[in-house]
Amino acid sequence: MNKQLSDKEPFDPEDYVERLAWRQHGGGSKGGAENFDPQILLNVFTHTIEELKVLNEKTQRRVEKLEQLSQKEEKEHKARVAELQKLNQMALNQFQELDERINHIATKVVHLGDQLEGVNIPRARAVEAEKLMKYFSEFLSGDITSDVFTDPFRLQEAADIIQKLHLIAQELPPDKFDAAKERIAAKYLEIEGNLVEQFKTAHQAGQKEEMKEVAAVLLNFKGYSHCIDAFIYQSQKVNQLILDVFSQPENVMGKFVLNVYEGKLQNHIQESLDKHRSDTEKYLKTLFQLFQQTSQLSADLSKYKLGSDTNFLNKLTKHIFGKYLESYIGVETTFLKTRMDIILNRYYNSINHQKRQIPSGGIHDLQARIRNKTNLNIGPAIETYGGETFLSQEVAINLLQESKEALKRCELLSSSKDLPGSAVRIFDILFEKLCMEHIDYAVDIGLQAISIPEPKTEPEIYFFDVVGQGNAIFHLLEKTFSDALVPLIISTPRYQEAVTRKREIMELIDSKLDGGLDRTITAMVGWIKHILTTEQKKTDFRPEDDSALMELYTPACHKVTNFIKKEIIKMRDSLDGKNLDATLTEFGVRFHRLVYEHLQQFTYNPRGGMLAICDVNEYRKCVKDELKVPLVDSLFETLHALCNLLVVVPDNLKQVCTGEQLASLDRSVVMSFVQLRADHKTGRLGKLFADFAQKTRERAGTGPSEHAA
Question: From the record, what ranges are coiled-coil (predicted)?
Answer without folding.
Answer: 49-101
